[in-house]
């Protein structure tokens, strides 16, 4: 009874399982029917593509139409085909699983229309897209990365508020297009913007308004100049971490750069001639600064005072003048040590240090009096009293006036001396040479003056030649350093205090009164001679060295000519010897031990190269080897059971001792004991039928 109950229960369970299976099949068929009605039929992987889970690879297939794709596709690789706008099916925009589409390097001339709304990343670079319509971009509300490099997009072809529907866009690439200005209406969510290699020449104040999240801005290869960039253009980008302005037309860095979060600043390949002192103020997070490929000769003292986190400083491609003007930078480099990497700080002048790195000029920099500005000195171990000393300014190029006066005769004024010290009207002037091209000028003036006019003139053989260089020095200063002077030259250095009798007069009256005081007063002048230029150790100075230097070009010409003639003679001797050796060796058998050639026989190159039979392949030496003559028509019968080898000479000799000639009646093979048989012709033997008429030996 129990067995029947178990059997009945098993049958019911089997029937229930069968019903559940049928129900699952019906549900699957119903879902497939619904998908077919909605046009979302699940296709297998196209035969022309390759699928790997959600990745579909249809790139480089020369496709002009996108084939039906599986519903599980998430990333489509469709680049490097021949797809136009008509090649994108309408069913593509009904997909809800596609996240990334690669459509670069195709034949698109418009922004694609049928794109899935679930798209996060779209690559359309290297096409011919001309417009950016707002309606199409509005269908991509989830788009985060848009690559439009290498197209034909202009500023006027971007529709107004084109990016208003892409509120999640974080990265926008518009490099190498036809933009003439910054696109308007960029989304506030933008974090990276690339506009390099366009035609942008003006950036107004409102260009980056609302882009508080922007972190990386690239404007390389445009037409930007300082006069066409608004003062507050970049100050609105408070969260900017990288700014690149490479290959523009800047003469100085833009003012009011963002400083709070900036980490990388690229200014290379412009036309920078000056970097203001406060350009990098507050940039405590700056890690990389690139000033390569400009026209900078010096950097202002205090430029790097806030760049405590600087790790890489690129300065190559600039004509750096390594005088006392860079004393502060030399001290800063040694103070930072290995914490900062500096590349390209190579001196272009003065001539004595050309090609040397600034780090290697410690000896010359020590000659600059006074500690450089910005260098803190800590006194005592227990605690630290920090003081900053200002380094005396050097000869500047921005506030120096140069005038050529060929007709000027500058005599030594009253009170002037031809030494290093002069005084006149309680003004004492002291000059002291520091190096071959620099002179330290100090003065003491009991009466205060608003400013001083310092001038210097290089004296030559005629006082009427040369130019006066003048500069204005603030009244609180008492010393000045002249650099870039000519070594071994006489200079006349003059100092004149500029005073004004009335401090309440207008600007024009003040200038007239100041000019009157200048005319009434006489400058204090002193003459000085600069030292000799640095010479290598062991060199002779004086006129002997000058004579040697003058005679050096002639000596070089004579030495070069002598060396050239010697080389020609050596080469000629070598060629003559090689030709003679080759001629002699051509008349001698190259095989040496294989015998000598027949006298008068020409040298055969084909034999040497192995393309023609060699007549010397058979060597007969004695003792130990002999060839036995045979009678005419004697059959060659081996002895019983023996393996006999018969050797025929290829070319029997036609002359020589111990040989048989072709016109003799001997019937047999030559036998010779004691020396090697010579080689000649086998024509006689062929005529008598003694040997086969072939050119090989038989065994």
Report the portion of residues in β strands.
Answer: 15-25%
Placed side by side, the strands forming the largest sheet appear as 1-2-3-4-5-6-7-8-9-10-11-12-13-15
- Number of E-state strands: 27
Biggest beta-sheet profile: 14 strands, mixed
Describe the oligomeric state of these chains in a short phrase: single chain
* Number of contiguous helices: 8
- Overall pLDDT score: 74
Low-confidence stretches: 371-419, 461-465, 501-520, 535-551, 584-628, 646-686, 690-699
Could you tell me how far the N terminus lies from the C terminus, measured between alpha carbons in angstroms?
105 Å
Helix content: 10-25%
The value of Rg in angstroms is 48 Å
Structural class by secondary-structure content: alpha/beta
Shape assignment = elongated
InterPro entries: Cys-rich_flank_reg_C (IPR000483), FN3_dom (IPR003961), FN3_sf (IPR036116), Ig-like_fold (IPR013783), Leu-rich_rpt (IPR001611), Leu-rich_rpt_typical-subtyp (IPR003591), LRR_dom_sf (IPR032675), SLRP (IPR050333)
Protein name: Fibronectin leucine rich transmembrane protein 1b
Keywords: Disulfide bond, Leucine-rich repeat, Membrane, Repeat, Signal, Transmembrane, Transmembrane helix
GO cellular component, one term: extracellular space
Structure, explained:
With about 700 residues, the protein is α/β, with parallel strands linked by helices. The protein is built from 8 helices and 27 strands. The strands form 5 sheets. The protein has a 14-stranded mixed beta sheet with strand order 1-2-3-4-5-6-7-8-9-10-11-12-13-15, with no helix packed on it. Strand 5, helix 2 and strand 6 form a beta-alpha-beta unit. Keywords: Disulfide bond, Leucine-rich repeat, Membrane, Repeat, Signal, Transmembrane, Transmembrane helix. InterPro entries: Cys-rich_flank_reg_C (IPR000483), FN3_dom (IPR003961), FN3_sf (IPR036116), Ig-like_fold (IPR013783), Leu-rich_rpt (IPR001611), Leu-rich_rpt_typical-subtyp (IPR003591), LRR_dom_sf (IPR032675), SLRP (IPR050333).
């Amino acid at each position: 009874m129990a067995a029947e109950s178990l059997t009945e229960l098993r049958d019911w369970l089997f029937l229930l399982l069968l019903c559940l299976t049928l129900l699952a099949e019906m549900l699957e068929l119903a879902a497939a029917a619904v998908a077919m009605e909605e046009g979302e039929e699940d296709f297998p992987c196209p035969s022309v593509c390759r699928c790997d889970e959600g990745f579909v690879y249809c790139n480089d297939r020369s496709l002009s139409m996108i084939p039906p794709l599986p519903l599980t596709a998430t990333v489509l690789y469709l680049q490097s085909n021949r797809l136009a706008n008509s090649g994108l099916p309408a069913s593509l925009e009904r997909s809800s699983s596609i996240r990334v589409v690669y459509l670069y390097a195709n034949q698109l001339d418009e922004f694609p229309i049928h794109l899935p709304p679930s798209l996060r990343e779209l690559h359309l670079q290297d096409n011919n897209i001309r417009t950016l319509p707002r309606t199409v971009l509005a269908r991509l509300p989830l788009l985060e990365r848009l690559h439009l490099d290498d197209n034909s997009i202009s500023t006027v072809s971007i529709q107004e508020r084109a990016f208003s529907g892409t509120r999640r866009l974080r990265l926008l690439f518009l490099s190498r297009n036809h933009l003439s200005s910054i696109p308007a209406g960029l989304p506030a969510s933008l974090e990276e913007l690339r506009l390099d290699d366009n035609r942008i020449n003006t950036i107004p104040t409102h260009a980056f308004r609302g882009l508080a999240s922007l972190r990386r801005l690239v404007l390389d290869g445009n037409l930007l100049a300082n006069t066409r960039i608004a003062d507050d253009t970049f100050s609105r980008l408070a969260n900017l971490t990288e700014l690149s302005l490479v290959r523009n037309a800047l003469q100085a860095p833009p003012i009011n750069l963002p400083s709070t979060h900036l980490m990388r600043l690229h200014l290379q390949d412009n036309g920078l001639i000056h970097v203001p002192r406060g350009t990098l103020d507050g940039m405590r997070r700056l890690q990389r600064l690139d000033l390569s490929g400009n026209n900078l000769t010096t950097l202002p003292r205090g430029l790097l005072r806030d760049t405590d986190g600087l790790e890489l400083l690129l300065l190559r491609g600039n004509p750096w003048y390594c005088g006392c003007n860079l004393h502060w930078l030399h001290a800063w480099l040694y103070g930072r040590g290995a914490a900062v990497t500096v590349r390209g700080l190579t001196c272009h002048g003065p001539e004595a240090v050309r090609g040397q790195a600034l780090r290697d000029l410690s000896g010359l920099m020590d000659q600059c009096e006074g500690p450089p500005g910005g260098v803190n000195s800590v006194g005592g171990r227990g605690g630290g009293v920090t003081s900053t000393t200002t380094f005396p300014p050097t000869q500047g190029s921005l506030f120096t006036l140069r005038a050529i006066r060929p007709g000027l005769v500058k005599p030594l004024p009253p009170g002037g001396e031809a030494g290093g010290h002069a005084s006149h009207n309680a003004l004492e002037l002291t000059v002291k040479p520091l190096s071959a091209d620099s002179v330290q000028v100090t003065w003491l003036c009991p009466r205060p003056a608003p400013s001083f006019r310092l001038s210097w003139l290089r004296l030559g053989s005629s006082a009427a030649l040369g130019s006066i260089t003048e500069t204005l020095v603030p009244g609180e200063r008492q010393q000045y350093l002249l650099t870039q002077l000519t070594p071994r030259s006489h200079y006349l250095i003059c100092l004149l205090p500029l005073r004004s009798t009335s401090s309440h007069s207008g600007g024009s009256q003040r200038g007239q009164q100041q000019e009157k005081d200048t005319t009434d007063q006489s400058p204090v002048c002193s003459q000085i001679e600069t030292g000799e230029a640095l010479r290598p150790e062991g060199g002779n100075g004086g006129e002997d060295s000058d004579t040697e230097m003058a005679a050096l070009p002639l000596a070089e010409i004579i030495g070069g000519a002598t060396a050239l003639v010697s080389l020609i003679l050596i080469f000629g001797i070598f060629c003559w010897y090689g030709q003679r050796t080759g001629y002699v060796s051509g008349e001698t058998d190259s095989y040496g031990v294989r015998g000598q050639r027949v006298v008068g026989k020409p040298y055969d190159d084909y034999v040497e190269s192995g393309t023609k039979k060699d007549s010397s392949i058979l060597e007969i030496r004695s003792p130990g080897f002999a060839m036995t003559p045979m009678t005419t028509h004697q059959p060659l019968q081996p002895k019983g059971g023996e393996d006999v080898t018969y050797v025929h000479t290829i070319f029997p000799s036609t002359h020589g001792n111990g040989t048989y000639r072709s016109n003799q009646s001997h019937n047999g093979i030559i036998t010779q004991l004691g020396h090697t048989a010579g080689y000649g012709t086998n024509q006689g033997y062929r005529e008598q039928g003694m040997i086969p008429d072939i050119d090989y030996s038989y065994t």
